Amino acid sequence: MTLLAILTVLLVILVAWQLIRISELSAAIKKEDVTGLPDHKENDIQGKLLLGFLVLFIIGFVYTVVEWGPRVLPKPASVHGEKTDFLFYLSLGIITLAFLITQPLLFYFSYKYRGIKGQKASYMEHNNKLELIWTLVPGFVLVVLISYGLSTWVKIMNPKFEEDPIVIELYAKQFGWTARIAGEDNKLGYANVRYIEDVNILGIDKNDPNGLDDIVVQNLIKIPVNKPIKLKMRSQDVIHSAYLPHFRVQMNCVPGAVTEFSFIPTKTTAEMRQDPKVIKQVEHINKLREAKGEDKYEFNYVLLCNKICGSAHYNMQMIFEVVSEDEYKNWLKEQKTFAQSL
């Protein structure tokens, strides 16, 4: 069947080529123009259409920025998030500037130099100066952006904190999250999927003393503001992606491996709810939910999965509540340790 399909395709190509040859020979006998070049009237129409498209193009761009600009994430709620946002907006600014210069010129020149009567194009074979400019300038910009990006990435992935970070494990599986906070020793006990049974949903080794004081939570976890947090991530089944957008945190959770990401939250949940941009976004969301007859939404930091990991992917949500250090300590005292839950 495969051979037959290949032969059929080749036959179709051969027939098409023969038909084109017959058409060319027929036109040559009749002395017809077979170049397919449009006449001056068509050029004029096409040029004006391109100019009109340019106008619509710019209107669409402005509308997109005005309409969807307010929907982007508010200011980051983490220390490193300010660096990533600066890099993002720097790159976006350069791209937007290049777009607003090159695209209007592209369509305008297509209109201005269209082939019409009384207008003859000038022939220019080569221009070393222009070639040098449009090669060196983008090259220089890319070198600067890439160098700055790599430097920023290294600092984010190898942070230097003034105090030891709170160690928290994020355990991903289809379709939910479980978190494990290191106990007083700030060390997570060894865990393996083979040890999963009954209440031991993370497979913590019962013989490892480091794991007995660990605290396992689901649905909601509280973390203290302005304190370094080290997330250690595992996956039980497929590749997931731990994504905390407002903290600008994202890292894949890979089966059989432990990945890490550290950050410092800078705004409590209560403070974030008072952010003017967050207030407007929540109002917009609640208008849509009200129209559907759904309950009102209240802002929370939410852990999401940023991989399409299966049919119930959307269910992978866990609330991260950022609170004061005292509130965090009080909440921690209320939680059961792994040893107490056995």
TrEMBL record:
For the keyword Magnesium, the answer is: no
Membrane-crossing ranges are 6-29, 49-66, 86-111, 132-150
Q: Can the keyword Signal be found in this entry's annotation?
A: no
GO molecular function, one example? copper ion binding
What keywords sit in the KW lines? Copper, Electron transport, Membrane, Metal-binding, Respiratory chain, Translocase, Transmembrane, Transmembrane helix, Transport
Q: Name one Pfam family in it.
A: COX2
The name under which this protein is listed is: Cytochrome c oxidase subunit 2
Q: Per the UniProt entry, what species is this protein from, by scientific name?
A: Thermaurantimonas aggregans
What gene does this protein come from? ctaC
